[in-house]
């Protein structure tokens, strides 16, 4: 793949522009090419009928990286736990990694 194509790849990111809470809806809207308010309405309706919208939004917030970052919140937490230098065996004891 040429360098030109690598820079034009669409990436799903939480955006600063149009952000109301965490930028999930505006990021999805920008990625898909529709108005972020349509995403917000769909999530509001899903929230009213069973609460699914809140869960979907929370998952998006955790898994979508911010536009200024290359990693999501979950990826940051995983890398921090791996870099602590300890591991937990099945007994729950923390042991130094060798």
UniProtKB/TrEMBL annotation:
<dbReference type="Pfam" id="PF04024">
    <property type="entry name" value="PspC"/>
</dbReference>
<dbReference type="InterPro" id="IPR007168">
    <property type="entry name" value="Phageshock_PspC_N"/>
</dbReference>
<feature type="domain" description="Phage shock protein PspC N-terminal">
    <location>
        <begin position="10"/>
        <end position="67"/>
    </location>
</feature>
<keyword id="KW-1133">Transmembrane helix</keyword>
<keyword id="KW-1003">Cell membrane</keyword>
<feature type="region of interest" description="Disordered">
    <location>
        <begin position="79"/>
        <end position="98"/>
    </location>
</feature>
<protein>
    <submittedName>
        <fullName>Phage shock protein C (PspC) family protein</fullName>
    </submittedName>
</protein>
<feature type="compositionally biased region" description="Polar residues">
    <location>
        <begin position="79"/>
        <end position="90"/>
    </location>
</feature>
<dbReference type="InterPro" id="IPR052027">
    <property type="entry name" value="PspC"/>
</dbReference>
<keyword id="KW-0472">Membrane</keyword>
<feature type="transmembrane region" description="Helical">
    <location>
        <begin position="41"/>
        <end position="64"/>
    </location>
</feature>
<keyword id="KW-0812">Transmembrane</keyword>
<dbReference type="GO" id="GO:0005886">
    <property type="term" value="C:plasma membrane"/>
</dbReference>
